[in-house]
Structure prediction request, 944 residues.
Amino acid sequence: MRKLVFFTLLIFRFFAYAQDNSDCLSCHDDKTAKGTRNGKTISIYMDEKKLKGSVHAKNKCIDCHVDLKDAEFPHDENPKRAQCATCHDEAFKLYSAGLHGRAKAKGDPLAPGCGDCHGNHEILKKKDPRSLTFPLKVPYLCGRCHKEGTPVQLQRNIPQDHIFENYSESIHGEGLLKKGLTVSATCASCHTAHLVLPHTDSRSSIARKNIAATCTQCHMGIENVHRKIIQGQLWEKEAHVLPACVDCHQPHKARKVFYDQGMADADCMKCHANTALISSKDGHSLYVDFAQVKDSRHAKIACSQCHSAVNPSKLRPCETITKNVDCASCHAAVGEEYKLSTHGKLFAKNDENAPICSECHGTHHVLGKRDPRSPIFATSIPKLCAQCHRPGQAAAKRIKNKKDDIISEYKESIHGKGLLKSGLTVTAKCTDCHTAHRELPSSDPLSSVNPKNMAATCGICHSGIEEKFLKSVHSPDVTKTDKKLPGCNDCHSSHTISRTDGDNFKLGVMSSCGNCHEEIAKTYFDTYHGKVSQLGSSKTAKCYDCHGAHDILPPSNPDSRLSRQNVIKTCQHCHPGATKMFAGYLTHATHHDPQKYPWLFWVFWGMTGLLVGTFIIAGAHTLLWLPRSFQWKKKLKEIEEREAREELEAEQSESQEKNENGKEK
Amino acid sequence: MAGKPKLQFQRFTRIQRLLHILMIVSFISLALTGMTLKFAYTSWAYFLSHLLGGYQTAGYIHRFAAVIMISVFTIHIIDVVRLKRRMFQSWKALILGPDSMLFNRKDWDDLKASLKWFVGKGERPEYGRWTYWEKFDYFAVFWGIFVIGSTGATLWFPEFFTRFIPGWVLNVATIIHSDEALLATGFIFTVHFFNTHLRPEKFPMDIVIFTGRIPLEEFKLDRPAEYKALVESGQLEKFLVEPYQPIVIRTIKIFGWTALSLGLFIVVFIIYAMIFAYR
Prediction:
């Protein structure tokens, strides 16, 4: 008996210990087997094949249904659910902290448990295409609850709508569902699989401060692409001021603008479409012509992207806005340039005349520079700058040493005519030389029109000239001197640039050279070339005809136009028959320098001596003659009168004779 | 005899008068255009240059006038040869005779006598066909044409001339050309003008060079030596001609006034440039 008891115990023990799956299947293998749960009749059939094909093939039923371990047969009507946490404690911990877990703990009937997503006995590895959690299936899995019309979407506070639909149309959804890219982001990639939390929870993977980290799991190095805005590191440092990924790339509706309720443009326009709306502070109009926004470059930018710091939880979400629009939050690089400019510096000093972005670009109707309606369209630029830089206007008054009417001058210049009369939009306008955002006075070494940078600035359009110039004597690279070297503007001027083939330029450039080369210019004007030029001849050799213009080199340089090798060729440009002897003509000769030009000096003074001598002798002769000449004139007159008298007398006597003769007859 | 105009003495031949007119035209043209270049730095030169049609046209006028003047000179030389054949028979008579253009003993005596007369120590000398100052004027033109003409040619054709002469000679030529021209214009428009036209007994002008004829009485008093010689040789009758019609005289006077005015005008400009704008 003891033996029997022991055996029985042993068997029981064996049973109890090695409570086998077959023991469970003895009941649960029956397809018609029914049980009740929570008062409902349910099938208690368990397909062994499924279990054998699942990841849990080697597990025993009681490994999961731990409460049935050692249980009597048939066990309780209401056994506990399978305990995944026994093995998957990490995942379960996350799940429990998450939205789903907490809801479940609260007994929310809509809250999903492990099995809702992973299945029950048929659980497969997520790499298995048949698995419920296979990436391609994840959207459908989540979509079971998170799509339109489901109880979850209807009864629970889910801020997003059309999640599944939007996702499937997004770049991620398209990649995953249409293109079969299993690496494409699924719901779980962003929301995580188990710790699903709302974005308002700071621990959430989609919380504002974590978004960048979440997205960069896949989009590695994306900060390099967004360098303009975040400069490679600002996302980490200043996540609170910078736009998060989802500010521009909508979470589900990628490629479509999307904004939270209350932050959408339509919400703003509820008030701002009213033309009578004014600021309670200073009474300026707060009306926004939304059609203009839609017509602008910012058509796809939402109001709240520029007017940041709105709070959708407020009745007036814009109530929390305290700062003016900062364009630099997107246009960061431009903003940095602006800060360096005179405009920006004045703005930093709170100068009331300092131009800000909107003064040139407009506010809601921001148009691209290629739009002819835009105030920054090429042909409109001079007018735009003139608003302040015209004589009498703010900037013209501030820049005291500039009295010239630069705008009118520009209009008459080759650039101005090209732009405004010929409509050549590629012609240099204010912004091409002064830059659009970093304009500085020419005295500033950073200025694009500083003498040091001038050649490079002009060289942007005048390709090749800069290279020539930098090799010439006028280049600071070549001539090291304390004296001022000429830049482009010293010969071409800055705002009155004219055609170089026009007479005005050709004649004017001589005095330009003469500004520095005073003596040598004077001697030039003593020669035939100089004199004819002074009379207005543009054909006669000018400084640049012999010396070159941008490529001026000292005659000692073999490459110079005036070097021994080249000078004859240079003369031959105008004098085809020029020879070596011809080239000996002194183009800068003066008769005032006995050391340098003794021949000219002495010939000049010889000729002058001859002239003065002749005039002294002839003049003295003439002056001495003058009084005698008066006397002689008198004498001649006397003689004349006397002769006339005599003649008259003779005539009279003749006629008397005739008369007497007649009487006699 | 009453009403019939008095005969006048023919002093210049038709060709001589024509050459002098051409000389005036070319000389004034050369002076005007040349001065614009010499005084290019003055505003009047700039104005004048443009008035004449611009520096280029002024240049053409200058060269064209130069050709005329050289032609005048050449024709004169030919005419002198013809004159020798017709009037003097031999070179000796032409050169050494009393009517020679060359300086001779009488000129020296006349000069001394003139200076005495000027200072009141003698009577007016009995001048002959050509006075010493006329001869001076005549040879000044010879000298001028040679000096200005030769330097002008090198400046006109520099490429040709620099085959034989170095380039710097052109610079020297420029100075000579220009200063000699200054001397010539200055001399003609002041000294020659005074000696011939502006001195009181001829004031305002002596048109003998245009008409070629001079009233006999005036001739008798002005050139007593020549008159006497002609009377003695009995050849005076040969040179007596009828005076021109008043219309001809008027035309000549208009031309004379124009030339005279232009000359004085140039002198004023030169003086202005030399005093106020010289450099």
In short: Chain B touches chain A through 55 residues (CB under 8 Å). Strands of chain B lie at 8-10, 213-215, 240-241. Chain B has one domain: 8-276.
